[in-house]
Specification:
about 375 residues; Lyase, Ornithine Decarboxylase, Chain A, domain 1; 2 domains; 9-stranded mixed β-sheet; elongated
Length: about 375
């Protein structure tokens, strides 16, 4: 395994930092008396999901059926797919998965709800569903208001569907300009959802779960009375985007990519063996990002990863910088979730020593 530490590019997870991050989020939820259901799209590694459950998570969240199936095979028994599942092929898989574990799924339209109801009736299941709410990201989800109450009432009328709750993802926090705006978005996320839950109860359709999700907004939304569940994902690793938003410090970042300098073709330019296929081109998915370049080179503030091609990272640097062919650099990626999906395995370390190799079992599960 020590050889893997120097065979680059390699994704490296500091297991001590990882475990500390897992425990800190679990402690936040314990202190607030709310459930933790972390999103595994950020790591896609069954061993990490099981560690989150051991630390107190009630279950996990997945984005794709394939991710959920992989986690179920690893022994995870309570999974929420925070996405809309539609079409005959996926609905059959959904029903097969629901027959073996405690499964819930998102919905934001009556048409999709009828599909879920039909497959549940055909297979003799009662399927847990949560209505997705748009609290500002403007992706999937219904805007809070009468249409949510109407859909909730219809869902209550279907014996094969159990309206478990409402959920949202304030992903627009990734477009915030700093910590103050992140806090504002997080508190608004919680308040909108808690108010909607009260409106649903007054309309005769109470919900047991009021679920919010997003690492940047987690600690702020958790302070709002009425929120019952958090679904953060990135917190296990953190990354350069979280640093830019003021959510974490460099010492919290558990995932890095190690790369080797393969060329110093000009005084102000060096090239590493990690390009877009290792670091990803992501600089922030849901708004203007505060990150500079394509990752942070640890211990080298004078280096900027200025450009990426598929297999090459081009670094801009001061001509006086001591950096030669064969030198190894360590990079905090901009977006850990997209980087982890590029590697078959990650190397777990403790105190700088190789400890174990973890398979990214749910990578590439796009269906």
């Amino acid at each position: 395994m020590e050889e893997l530490l120097f065979d680059t590019p390699v994704a490296v997870v500091d297991l001590d930092k990882l475990e500390k991050n897992i425990e800190q989020m679990a402690a936040l939820c314990r202190a607030r008396g709310i459930a933790l259901r972390p999103h595994i799209k950020s790591h896609k590694i069954p061993e990490i999901a099981l560690a989150q459950l051991k630390a107190g998570a009630i279950g996990i969240t997945a984005a794709k059926l394939g991710e959920a199936e992989e986690m179920a095979r690893a022994g995870v028994k309570d999974i929420f797919i925070a996405n809309q599942i539609t079409g005959p092929a996926k609905l059959k898989r959904l029903a097969a998965l629901a027959a073996g574990i405690k499964l819930s799924v998102g919905v934001d339209s009556w048409r999709n709800a009828r599909e879920l109801d039909q497959i549940a009736r055909e297979t003799g299941l009662v399927l847990d569903v949560l209505v997705e709410i748009d609290t500002g990201l403007h992706r999937c989800g219904l805007e809070p208001g009468p249409q949510v109450i109407e859909l909730a009432k219809k869902l209550r009328e279907r014996p094969s569907l159990h309206l478990k709750g409402i959920f949202t993802h304030a992903g627009h926090a990734y477009g915030a300009r700093g910590p103050a705006q992140v806090e504002e978005i997080g508190r608004d996320e919680g308040q909108v959802m808690a108010q909607l839950a009260r409106q649903l109860k007054a309309a005769g359709t109470p919900v047991e779960v009021v679920s919010v999700g997003s690492t940047p907004t987690a600690r702020h939304a958790a302070q709002v009375p009425g929120v019952t569940e958090l679904r953060p994902g990135n917190y296990v690793f953190y990354d350069a985007i979280q640093l830019a938003l003021g959510v974490a410090a460099v010492g919290n970042c558990a995932l890095t990519v190690r790369a080797t300098v393969i060329s110093r073709p000009a005084p102000d330019r060096a090239v590493i063996d990690a390009g877009s296929k290792a670091l990803n081109l992501d600089k922030g998915a849901h708004g203007a990002s505060l990150v500079r370049g394509f990752g942070i080179v640890l211990g080298r503030p004078g280096l900027t990863i200025e450009r990426l091609s598929e297999e090459h990272g081009i670094l801009a640097l001061d001509p006086a910088e001591i950096l030669d062919v064969g030198d190894v650099v360590e990079i905090i990626p901009n977006h850990a979730c997209t980087v982890i999906n590029l590697f078959d395995t990650v190397l777990g370390t403790r105190k700088g020593k190789a400890a174990e190799v973890l398979r990214v079992a749910a990578r590439g599960k796009s269906r």
